[in-house]
Amino acid sequence: MWIFDLFRKKKKLDRPWKKFYTNDDLNYKIPDISMYDQVYDSFIKYPRGVAIKYMGKNFNYKNIITKIDNMAKYFNSIGIKKGDIVTIMLPNIPEVLISLYALNKIGAIANMTHPLSAQEEIKETLTSTLSKFLIIYDARYSKIEKFIDNMNMEKVIFVSPSNSLNIIKKVLFNISNIGKFKHYPKKDNFISYKKAYNIGKNLPNIEKVHYGKNTPAVILHSGGTSGKAKNVVIQNRAFIFAAKGEEIDLIRLEQGDSALAIMPNFHGFGLSVLMHTPLALGCSTILVPRFNAKKFDILFKKTKPTCVLGVPTLFEALINSKNVRKLDLSFLKYVVSGGDLLSKSLEDRVNKYLKNHNSSAKITQGYGLSEALACVTLAHDDVNKSGSVGIPLAGNHVKIIDPATRKTVRYGAVGEIVINSKALMMGYLNDEAETNEALQIHNDGHIWLHTGDLGCMDNEGFLYYKGRIKRMIITSGYNVYPSHIEEVIESHPAVLQCTVVGVPHPYKQEVPKAFIVLKSGYIGIFEKSEIKKYCEEHLAKYMVPKEFVIRRKLPKTKLGKVDFNKLKSDVGEDD
User: Fold this and answer.
1) What is the CA radius of gyration of the chain?
2) 478-568: CATH number
3) Does residue 408 sit in helix, strand or coil?
4) Which parts of the chain register pLDDT below 70?
5) CA distance 390 to 263
6) 18-27+237-256+274-467 belongs to which CATH class?
7) How far apart (Å, rounded) are the C-alpha atoms in residues 512 and 42?
8) Are 278 and 269 in contact (CB under 8 A)?
9) Is there a contact between 185 and 158 (Cβ–Cβ < 8 Å)?
10) Which single residue of 290, 443, 460, 494 has CA 20 to 30 Å from 297?
């Protein structure tokens, strides 16, 4: 899908962050293996080590590899072959990883899709990827009932989350769900996961075929730079490279440690950083099928993860949890925020919370996107500066350019973040125009991913994320960055959270509008005029929001990020 110019001489890239790595780190060569091979290697090293933890039940590497191999035999028996795209629509349960690696073993591609997708979204993903096989949560049958018979599906496999529960929890789950959803009918092309697995279990072993690093492995989904949903094709090499980069950076992780997988499997951070990387390194992934923000502290007490990664709103939920009075977090080694801006105010409050609960960890930030398999830069341990999203993972290259000229800007200047990496996507499925728009060859001879994100870099290579180009507000000819206004407003003692969006103006083009959530002690007694005065003291005149709106909470997307689109169309009064 890429267009390579083999005769263009490539210039040596500037890497101000290289002092933080060894030469071996920077020049890591990706072995010619698959995702399955990487997990199988962990099985050879740690057969009795715990690979997956799910609802209080542990699965060791030997057990998981056996399950993967049996499911691969079934997939092979129904005609799934190299290059076939199989859509997976499951929550974070063991079957999602078993299915993923079983497909990877036989060279097929897993299309990771939101299990709560609406009917038209399901139809669209099946159509756009030409999927003939679907693995879906059984309670979602009603969402596909009206159209699935017209899709010429060769096989639909229905999975119950109770399959991998222990006996007691399985009985309780089944009792509590009696009559709650419509069961799928008996049809030749419908089968339960349990029955499919048992068929595979009794089939003879299949011949092992080598599928290397350049084999397409996974499809993730992204709005790209245009906002239109796209199918992002990721090769094996990206997952292998990312796992190595995270191993180099998270130096205190060791065999036996665990990552709390609260981010979903259809999200790059969730699938790569919290699921595949732990399994590639001989660690454990703790699968959380349904996250309850109000019980975040209880989840920590039960699972005791070494590493947790989430969006800022999840950490806001943690520090506001009141269920466990004396929560001991001494087991935490790494706490990473990604997927959205982490304000200085929230960073300070999370670090205070961690310290008060016996953890030596400090919250850091990472940056990435689906087109570069999630994690591009990462702050960790002493390689961290407050407010930054860290330095590029070893082997990644990041530069900041002027979007109009593609010329690299000086250190500290804001521009578009572009990325060169061995983990870049192959391209957008069946969309050459959008692929060529995102992946561009620059004058240095290298292919760069244009992210549509704004940022700046200092002279040591630390990246500072400033938001989407589309979020940038142009008012009276001035560029205004919402993240800067948000940081100022959130520094006010009365403010818990703030999001700024651009709204139309008759002659200034756009003006900032601030949506504010107050701290509990200030609700009902705080005057908005104080915030305006505070902004006038700390911001240039053209940056001061034209309007301030008080909200009890801000709208969120399915991933827990602030929903900017809803706020842009929000014309309501204060709550």
Assistant:
1) 24
2) 3.30.300.30
3) strand
4) 1-9, 223-228, 559
5) 20
6) alpha beta
7) 51
8) no
9) no
10) 494
**Strand positions, DSSP E, 190-343:** 190-192, 216-222, 230-235, 258-261, 284-287, 307-310, 334-337
Which part of the chain is CATH 3.40.50.980?
Answer: 35-212
Q: What counts of helices (H) and strands (E) characterise the chain?
A: 18, 27
What SS3 class is residue 384? coil
pLDDT of residue 480: 85
Closest CA to 517 of 502, 534, 531: 531
Report the alpha-carbon distance of residue 408 to residue 217 in Å, rounded: 33
> So what's the pLDDT on residue 6?
44
Under 8 Å between Cβ of 271 and 238: no
Alpha-carbon gap, residue 336 to 199, rounded angstroms? 41
Say what the pLDDT of residue 4 is. Answer: 44
DSSP 319-345: HT--S-TT---TT--EEEE-SS---HH
Domain with CATH 3.40.50.12780 in the chain: 18-27+237-256+274-467
Which tokens is 97 given?
């990883």
- Map tokens 């119950």 to a residue: 160
**Alpha-carbon gap, residue 278 to 259, rounded angstroms:** 7
Query: Could you tell me which of 456, 318, 321, 346 has the C-alpha nearest to residue 398?
Result: 456
466 three-class SS: strand
> For 363-410, what is each residue's pLDDT tens digit?
999 999 999 998 999 999 999 999 999 999 999 999 999 988 999 999
Q: What is the pLDDT of residue 7?
A: 46
For residue 328, what are its two tokens? 């001991």
Selection from 297, 311, 275 nearest residue 90 by Cα: 275
Query: How far, in Å, CA of 246 to CA of 377, rounded?
Result: 10
User: Bridge-partner residues for 415, per DSSP?
Assistant: 455
SS3 108: coil
Cβ neighbors of 436 (< 8 A, separation 6 or more) are 3
Domain span(s) for CATH 3.30.300.30 in the chain: 478-568
Question: 16 near 253, Cβ under 8 Å?
Answer: no
β-bridge pairing 133-137 and 85-89: parallel
C-alpha span between 386 and 347 (Å, rounded) = 8
What separation in angstroms does the CA of 542 have from each of 65, 481, 513, 514? Answer: 59, 11, 12, 14
> How would DSSP label each residue in 530-542?
HHHHHHHHHS-GG
Do 343 and 487 contact (CB within 8 A), yes or no? yes
End-to-end CA distance of the chain: give it in Å, rounded.
Answer: 50
Task: Label residues 417-453 b or e (16+ Cβ within 10 Å = b).
Answer: bbbbbbbbbbbbbebeebbeebbebbebebbbbbbbb
Mention every residue, 6+ apart, whose C-beta is less than 8 A from residue 56. Answer: 166, 169, 302
CATH class for the domain made up of 35-212: alpha beta
Q: HEC string of 39-90? A: HHHHHHHCCCCEEEEECCEEEEHHHHHHHHHHHHHHHHHCCCCCCCEEEEEC
Q: What are phi and psi of 532, to 5 degrees?
A: -60, -45
